[in-house]
Amino acid sequence: MSDEKTSAAGLALRSARRVVVKIGSAILCGEDGVRTEWLAGLASDIVALRDRGVDVVVVTSGAIALGRNRLGLKKGLRLEEKQAASAAGQAALMQAWQAAFSTHGVTVGQLLITLDDTENRRRYLNARATLRTLLDLGALPIVNENDTVATSEIRYGDNDRLAAHAAQILEADALVILSDVDGVYDADPRASPEAKRIDVIDAVTPEIEAAAAGPNVHAGVGAGGMASKIAAAKIACGNGCAAIIAPGHYEQPLARVVNNGAATLIRASASGAGARRQWIGGRLKPAGEIHVDDGAAKALKDGASLLPAGVTQVAGAFSRGDAVTIVDAGGRVLGQGLSAYNSVEVAKIAGRRSEDIESLIGYKRRPAVIEKNDLALRSE
Ligand code: GLU
Questions:
Q1: pLDDT one-digit tens code per residue, 123-167
Q2: pTM attached to this predicted model
């Protein structure tokens, strides 16, 4: 199932720490409802990522497809019928997700959001707080659009862009879009048999957008199509998050990407990463301080993450995800970063090895106190 060579998408997914996985209706739902066996495979993939300390958020479609069957509606629904179908289908959709994860002892939490929620700052912050709290509590957040109240003008309409915004809210470093296509092609593969899948896209250019135009291969189940996937990738990449467009119909589709199976990686734009660093280093007000020893100070300058072993002291009360000032042994400010643990936890794990985190605070999210991508060091 894996290519002999390492794939760029595989590498990106293996190194990601916060991942949004978007699942389209076409792969999740069959004629008779949710494809539970397939979902069980995906659940074990997600659990494997979580076990490696990766924060995972799911964006799932399927409410309308499931509700349509339950209400005996035909395809080609009017907006009101879509809203009714989503109301009838959302409960069934969540039930399926809950069942798939209960066997792993993972609690799922449902977030239904609308375009407004990502555009209005207060609601955006609320959505972010809910996501983070669920993750802190070890739950798996599952997001869908609130189709029942989202009318055409204020509607995402497809979950691809919704997923890109979820990635932005989560400050994810990878957005994986699983669908019934196996990547981005340089031309429409139905129209030109010689169309080739592109492994890596450095930037979404007008040519890529033009090649992606046209309806989905299995249009009718999901709302997206390649154009909406490219639009989502563009949003994600502009926010410093890589996008991976991968085939979802295989059993364990994420493991397949991790093992270098076919997929297209659309790299995060450098300016997106730069904007993120600027945001970490500049616009965020630090909520506390983390003091580090000389070894850690040197390692940070060399591009490493901050491990608990290098932390000597903590000041202030901060939550997980807050910005903190990093101070060296001589009292100099090295820069700013987002702490993966709260101030009480950092104080407990200071000076200790990453392997001991779990025994010290009862759980382990990830080995570093501040991940390298969450760091903005001052230039000397
Ligand atoms: N929110 C819709 C649903 O759950 C799906 C939209 C899409 O297919 O992208 O049915």
A1: 777 888 899 899 989 999 999 999 888 766 556 768 998 999 899
A2: 0.75
- Residue pLDDT, tens place only, 23-54: 999 999 998 899 999 999 999 999 999 999 89
Domains in the chain, please, with CATH?
Answer: 3-269 (3.40.1160.10), 276-377 (2.30.130.10)
Choose which residue among 159, 161, 162 to substitute to test ligand 1 binding: the one with the highest number of ligand atoms within 8 A of its C-beta.
159
Examine the pLDDT at 8 and tell me if it is beyond 60: yes
Q: Which atom of ligand 1 is nearest to the CA of 228?
A: 9
**Ligand 1 atom 2 nearest Cα:** 61
- Output the CA 83–ligand 1 centroid distance in Å: 11
Å from CA of 133 to ligand 1 middle:
25
Query: Exposure string (b/e) for 192-219, b if CB count within 10 Å is 16 or more?
Result: eeeeeebbebeebeeebeebbeeebeee
Nearest atom (ligand 1) to Cα of 66 = 10
Which atom, in ligand 1's list, is nearest to the CA of 65?
10
Distances (CA, A) of 243 to 50, 80, 191, 234: 19, 32, 25, 8
- Residues within a 6 A CB radius of ligand 1: 25, 61-65, 86, 144-145, 147, 158-159, 222-224
- For 259, counting Cβ atoms within 10 Å of its Cβ (0-12 exposed, 13-18 middle, 19+ buried), the class is middle
**Which tokens sit at 151?**
């009318």
**How far from each other are the two terminal CA atoms of the chain, in whole angstroms?**
47
Averaged pLDDT of the chain: 87
CA atoms within 13 A on the CB side of 22: 32
Nearest residue by C-alpha to atom 6 in ligand 1: 158
